[in-house]
């Protein structure tokens, strides 16, 4: 298995030719996001975004009991106001990096996914969680607000009123309720989250890489627009793929009853 390290606490592993695993690997701190880890995560996402061979990315954790517990509050406790302000663009780049990955993304969540950790998962297109998962945005309990996209991503996932209850109460939500509320998409047995996410990624990666990226772009850009405007976004995305090599190969493979060999163009 190929692995590329980005700093000390983030890695990208390859599973076959087309599935990338973005690994949070700061186990001694339960993957708390320090300045250095945020910088590494942004660098890893930048490299992944430029990798045309990666059709799906899966975000995982090496810690047995935690996906990511959010910001490194021990580090922040020593910050001056000026230092906290200087850290802000670094952490924003990390969360934005995950959110703007051009290929479909899946978070494999077990244990704690809190604050910024849950925001990393929310930045993905799909969330697979095992039964140990505990998710939440507890930032108001320590005097701040979700700052990694949570106030925008959570309402888009579960609606404004439900998101307000979760953010305002700062409560933690166990796996079964999280699945019921739509905070996670797939619930699996303990320890099966990474395997299921990678299996799902493999099934997705069998499809056209051009089509996958265009479909994600259309859904992301069209969400929140009125229907007419959203359909224009979809039409633009359709036009971007209609004359691609992938479209020609997909139609030919269908008619010849064979597996497509996607050119990715």
UniProtKB/TrEMBL annotation:
Superkingdom: Bacteria
Keywords of the record: Lipid metabolism, Lyase
Alphabetized InterPro entries for the sequence: ClpP/crotonase-like_dom_sf, Enoyl-CoA_hyd/isom_CS, Enoyl-CoA_hydra/iso, Enoyl-CoA_hydra_C
Name the UniProt record assigns to this protein: Enoyl-CoA hydratase/isomerase family protein
PROSITE patterns, per the entry: ENOYL_COA_HYDRATASE
Organismal lineage: Bacteria, Bacillati, Actinomycetota, Actinomycetes, Kitasatosporales
Family that this chain belongs to: Belongs to the enoyl-CoA hydratase/isomerase family.
């Amino acid at each position: 298995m190929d692995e590329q390290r980005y700093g000390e606490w983030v890695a990208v592993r390859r599973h076959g030719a087309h599935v990338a695993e973005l690994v949070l690997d700061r186990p001694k701190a339960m993957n708390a996001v320090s300045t250095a880890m945020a910088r590494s995560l942004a660098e890893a996402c930048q490299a992944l975004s430029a990798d045309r061979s990666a059709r799906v990315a899966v975000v995982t954790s090496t810690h047995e009991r935690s996906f990511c517990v959010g910001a490194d509050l021990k580090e922040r406790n020593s910050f001056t106001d000026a230092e906290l302000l200087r850290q802000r663009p670094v952490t924003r780049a990390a969360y934005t990096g995950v959110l703007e990955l051009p290929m479909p993304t899946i978070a494999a969540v077990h244990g704690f996914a809190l604050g910024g950790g849950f925001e990393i998962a929310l930045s993905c297109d799909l969330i697979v969680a095992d039964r140990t998962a505990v998710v939440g945005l507890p930032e108001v309990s320590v005097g701040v607000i979700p700052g990694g996209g949570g106030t925008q991503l959570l309402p888009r996932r579960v609606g404004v009123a439900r998101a307000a209850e979760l953010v305002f109460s700062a409560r933690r939500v166990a796996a079964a309720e999280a699945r019921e509320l739509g905070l996670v998409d797939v619930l699996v047995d303990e320890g099966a989250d990474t395997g299921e996410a990678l299996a799902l990624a493999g099934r997705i990666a069998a499809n056209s890489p051009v089509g996958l990226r265009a479909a994600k772009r259309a859904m992301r850009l069209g969400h929140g627009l009125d229907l007419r405007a959203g359909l224009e976004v979809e039409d633009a995305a359709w036009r971007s793929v209609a004359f691609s090599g992938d479209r020609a190969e997909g139609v030919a493979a269908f008619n010849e009853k064979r597996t497509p060999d996607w050119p990715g163009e």
